Structure to design on (503 residues):
């Protein structure tokens, strides 16, 4: 094989923030037509490196070389002009504007006298949307779209440019399986046109499916680049965290206590129907199913975000009404939501205040919030969850994506709930922290918490659950004990193949 001329090179990139050396002399080469994975723990520097490349941050040291020429990326528009397109981890869309306006923001097609050519705009947009096979159109307001569809708008925006390189920063974190298939087709298409693709994800199966080479960062330092075909999950994990992980199935057992929460014949419009289950103290019950099976909606009902249309909820044997999150919190129910950006964090606030937000009332000493108590809570969960931040004063918006998620998890754990519901607990979390969070969930159960885990990752539900509730189209198909469950019977249940006995 002849040496290919790289699309771009990064050389010796250094980037520091107050208290953090985010990148410590990182070099990387992107070849035309390759999918190049960038991996590393939460806070390793992946997004920062890509933001340097995309002109969002200026490096303190080092060079970016495009077409063998050193360049300065003065800003995102300049990067785009040089053919470098960035699809962000944090969605950066204007929610009040239409899909078309978002896609062509700053570059709207104009008629004479500078008037926007709406017909042209709509036609251009719909052409791209057709390629992506999405269920919305140019005129749809972005704010009305699901997170997954907003992600598709970001992707559509990338396709308007004659790109040399496209950077995807955790694009699949909130996509359904069907949407992922479309995304991978888009990537293959770009690849065949010789576009170099940088791809960040914590999902190993995806990495090995679509990427050609894998580069690893650890604490801002470059660890090396390997061919995907010549390594495996264990090899990459070792490079990322410098040790091996124990990924064996949960075998720990402890005594279960009384029923903490029970649901009888619960329904909610056409979202789910006639759902009944119970969770005991000390028990972890996993809810598994495809997107749209109704799992998140059940979680939201228990937390008072939705009102059921029929059925009852009982706690400690008594019927309860939960009409708002405040009701739920008062009864000791906590929810770590799926969409942490929208429902979990105040990005402009510091780490400590975000974590202790729901319990400020309890920590108040006279008219003042007791600072020491709050810091102590923060410190405890920072250590437990291995949250990487220079200190509690750091603004949450400045933390890496995965570390932001850990703050939300810490926030709800620190309330010592009776019933803890976690929806997609490890989305966007690196492999090392993932197993820490799994251990923590088991530990909480051992301490007597009743835990509900909603997850679309099969290894995760298998790993943490004592029982698994399999859902299909708003109904519980079957409840498995950890002894009964296998990957096969679980897949059958959630695909509606197995009628099974209704739990
Ligand atoms: N604007 C900023 N201000 C201060 N610190 C920052 C800023 N952006 C990033 N950092 C810090 O730089 C480090 C690297 O963050 P980065 O977002 O690049 O991590 P990452 O590898 O993308 O992690 P994740 O997998 O969680 O997304 C982290 O310690 C983060 O807190
Ligand atoms: Mg990141």
């Amino acid at each position: 094989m002849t040496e290919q001329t790289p699309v771009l090179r990064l050389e010796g990139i250094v980037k520091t923030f107050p208290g953090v050396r985010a990148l410590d002399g990182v070099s990387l080469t992107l070849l035309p037509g390759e999918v190049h994975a960038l991996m590393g723990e939460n806070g390793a520097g992946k997004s920062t490196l890509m933001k340097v490349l995309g002109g969002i941050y200026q490096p303190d040291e080092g060079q970016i070389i495009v077409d063998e020429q050193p360049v300065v990326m003065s800003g995102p528009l300049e990067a785009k002009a040089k053919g470098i397109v960035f699809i962000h981890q944090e969605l950066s869309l204007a929610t009040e504007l239409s899909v078309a306006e978002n896609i062509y923001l700053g570059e709207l097609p104009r008629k004479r006298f500078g008037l926007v050519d709406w017909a042209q705009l709509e036609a251009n947009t719909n052409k791209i949307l057709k390629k992506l096979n999405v269920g919305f159109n140019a005129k749809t307001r972005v704010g009305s779209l699901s997170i997954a569809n907003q992600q598709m708008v970001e992707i559509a925006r990338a396709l308007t440019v004659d790109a040399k390189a496209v950077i995807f920063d955790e694009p699949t974190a909130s996509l359904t399986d069907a949407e992922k298939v479309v995304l991978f087709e888009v990537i293959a298409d770009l690849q065949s046109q010789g576009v170099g693709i940088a791809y960040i994800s914590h999902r190993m199966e995806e990495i090995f499916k679509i990427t050609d080479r894998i580069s690893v960062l650890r604490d801002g330092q470059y660890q090396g680049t390997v061919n995907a075909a010549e390594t495996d999950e264990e090899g990459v994990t070792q490079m990322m965290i410098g040790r091996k992980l124990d990924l064996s199935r949960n075998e720990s057992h402890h005594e279960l206590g009384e029923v903490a929460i029970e649901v009888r014949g619960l329904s909610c419009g056409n979202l789910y129907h006639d759902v009944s289950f119970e969770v005991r103290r000390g028990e972890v019950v996993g809810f598994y199913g495809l997107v749209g099976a109704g799992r998140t909606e059940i979680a939201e009902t228990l937390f008072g975000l939705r009102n059921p249309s029929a059925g009852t909820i009982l706690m400690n044997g008594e019927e309860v009404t939960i009409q708002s999150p405040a009701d739920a919190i008062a009864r000791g129910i906590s929810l770590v939501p799926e969409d942490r950006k929208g429902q979990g964090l105040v990005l402009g606030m510091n780490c400590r205040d975000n974590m202790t937000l729901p319990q400020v009332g309890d920590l108040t000493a006279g008219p003042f919030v007791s600072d020491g108590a709050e810091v102590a809570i923060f410190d405890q969960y920072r250590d437990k969850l291995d949250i990487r931040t220079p200190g509690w004063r750091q603004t949450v918006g400045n933390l890496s994506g995965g570390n932001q998620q850990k703050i939300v998890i810490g926030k709800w754990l620190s309330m010592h709930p009776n019933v803890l519901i976690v929806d997609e607990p490890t989305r966007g979390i690196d492999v090392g922290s993932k197993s820490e969070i799994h251990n923590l969930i088991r530990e909480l159960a051992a301490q007597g918490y009743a835990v509900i885990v909603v997850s679309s990752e099969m290894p995760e539900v298998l790993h943490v659950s004592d029982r698994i509730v399999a859902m299909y189209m708003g109904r519980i198909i079957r409840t498995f004990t950890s002894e009964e469950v296998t990957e096969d019977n679980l897949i059958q249940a959630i695909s509606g193949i197995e009628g099974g006995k209704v739990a």
